[in-house]
Amino acid sequence: xxxxxxxxxxxxxxxxxxxxxxxxxxxxxxxxxxxxxxxxxxxxxxxxxxxxxxxxxxxxxxxxxxxxxxxxxxxxxxxxxxxxxxxxxxxxxxxxxxxxxxxxxxxxxxxxxxxxxxxxxxxxxxxxxxxxxxxxxxxxxxxxxxxxxxxxxxxxxxxxxxxxxxxxxxxxxxxxx
Length: 177
Fold this sequence. Notes:
The protein is α+β, with helices and mostly antiparallel strands. It has 2 domains: 1-64; 72-177, 3-Layer(aba) Sandwich (Endonuclease, Chain A). It is built from 5 helices and 4 strands, in the order ααβββαβαα. It has helices at residues 2-57, 74-86, 125-137, 147-152, 154-176; strands at 93-98, 101-107, 112-117, 141-146. Helix 2 packs across helix 5 (154-176). The N and C termini lie far apart (62 Å).
């Protein structure tokens, strides 16, 4: 009887520690992102010039908005510029929190999360699968795009997003009719 109780207590303690570790990691990530954002504000004038140059190089009429400064890489900004051509900038939210995870981009109206699989960051496929399963449980649809697609065929990625959102709009309108 005593051994069972000890095992149960140990199991409960481990669950509690895992939850605490998870909460602590989440708090650290949030603080890290806040610090990164503060650093971005300090670098703001230099970043603004870089972002304008990037847009001109991609053939867009240059403009600045706050969401642009939330992107974390040139690859994310390239996708943001392309998405912004199709959607209102209020609909596209970079670095969107979903539960205790962060999406590269989210279109909350459509419950769509967009992930850009950079070469170095997304090497652990098992970790990505676990993350995707968690986000799907939250009711989101996930679209993943590899680096090469965003760089070489950005129109194809945008076309997939547009097709998804059009189908979502159609199904929403048929439900309300």
